[in-house]
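Researcher: Let's continue the batch. This sequence belongs to RNA polymerase, sigma 54 subunit, RpoN, and it's 468 residues. Same format as the previous ones, please.
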Amino acid sequence: MIEIKNQLKLVPQLILTPQLKLTLKVLQLNILELNEYLLQEAQVNPFLEIEFRDLYSGRSQVENREDITLVDEFHWDEESLWERRVPSFSFEEGEDEIGSLIERTVGTEETLTQHLYWQLGFLELSPLQREIAGFIMGNLDDKGYLSVPVEELAIDINVLPEEVEKVRRLLQRLDPVGVASLDLRECLLVQLEFLGYKDSDLPYKLVAEHLSELVQNIETLSKKLDLPIADLQEAMEIIKNLEPFPARNFSSTKGLYIEPDLRFYKEEEEWKVEILNEKAPRVYLSPLYYKIIQNKRLLNNGKGKEFLKEKFKMAENLLKALDSRYSTLYKVGEAILKAQRDFLERGVSFLKPLTLKDLSQVTGLHESTISRVISHKYVDTPLGLYPLKFFFSTGYDTHKGESLSAVAIKNYIKEIVQTEDPKKPLSDSEIGSILSEKYGIKIARRTVTKYREELNIPSIRERRKKIS
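Model: Same format as before. Here are the C-alpha cells for RNA polymerase, sigma 54 subunit, RpoN:
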C-alpha cells in the first residue's frame, strides 16, 4: 500500500507589487510608446500634469518642481510625495527576481521596418543613405509597397530622385525581396531577378508583359501566346511561389516611424551618450489639485478619499518608474558605447562581440532587464540609426588573438562575395578558407552558409545561374 504523507514546504514566491509591475511596463516602452502611455495616464489621473520639454539631462523627473505641502486633513500611511523628492528607483536590489519575471513575458512581434533596419546595419551606407532609407520605410503601405512616387519623396527630403531610387533598389533586395516596390509587377520581377531569371526567360516575360492575363484559363493563354501548355504550367508554378505582398508576414506597418531613444555623439574627442526624450512630455504632480484636497465635503466622503488616495499613489509610482527607466537606459547605453567605440570610429568590421552576460557584468543589471531595455529601441549615431540589438552578437577568436563579432564576419563574407569572379563564384567552403587565410577566422562551412543566407546572398548555384 502506498503511504500518503502530508508535508509542508516553503516555496519562495515573488509578489508582483504595483510599483514593480509599473516599472517593468515603462522600462520596455520605446519613446513613441512612452509618449502615448503618458498622455493616456495624464487624462485619467488628476494628480498628473504634463508638458513637452527639452532633452533629458539626467535629472530626476520630479526635480525643479515647486514643493507643495498637503493640508493636515489629508494624510495616509505613505509620506506625502509633495513633502519630499522621490529617490531614484534602483534595480540593483532584487535583480534576479525582476529578471525571472521578465523572462516569463512574451516578446512583441517584429515589424517590417524593424526587420529592414536590422539588415541595414550590415551595410556600409552613408548617413544620408540611411536617412533616405528611413524615409522610404516610413512610406511603405500595409503590403510593403512604396506608397508615394520617388520624385515626390525626393522633394520632401531635398535630395535628387536618383539618390532615392538608388537606396530604394537596395532595399528591394533585402529580406523580404521586393519590398519598397512601386507595384505588383515590379515586386514580382525583382524576386525573379534575385532568383537568377533574365528578361528573356518565360516567367520573367509573363510577369513583365502579360501579368493581367495570367488569370485566364491556361489553355486560352497558351493559344493566345502560342506557347506549349507544359511550358506555361512550369512558368506559372514559379510565379505562384513568389510573394505578392512583402509585408504579409510582419506585424502592421502603419505608424512605424522610428524615433531613437538614445544618441551616441563625439564632443571634443570624447564619446558621449544622451537620452533623447524631447518627444515625451515632462510629467509632474499638478499643484492645482491641492485645492481638491482642501475640499472638506469631498474628504468626508469615503469613496472620494479612497479615489484620491489611489490616484495619488499611482502618480507617485509612475514618477518612480520613469526615473528608473531613464537611469537604466542611460546605464545600458553608456556600457554599449564603451564596448563598441571602435565600430563608431572605424565601421562595421570593427564591431566587437557583445552578449547580454557581458553587459550584465559591467552594469550590474540582470540579463533579462537588459533584454527588456534594448527591445524595439534605437540609437542615433554619426553612422546612422541602429537598433540597440544590433550591437549584440556572439564572437569568434582569430589566430591573432583578436575577437570578431558575428556581424563583422558577415561583413567580410559580403565583401568576399562582392569581389569574387562572377564567372567563378565561390562555394561556402571556399569562403570559409578565405576567412581563415586572410582574417585568421576559423569557422565551419555550415556557419558560413547560415551567415550567407542571413545576408540574403544567393547560393553558388544561383549566382552561377545568373551569369549563364
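Researcher: Any comment?
Model: The first strand starts at residue 48 and ends at 52.
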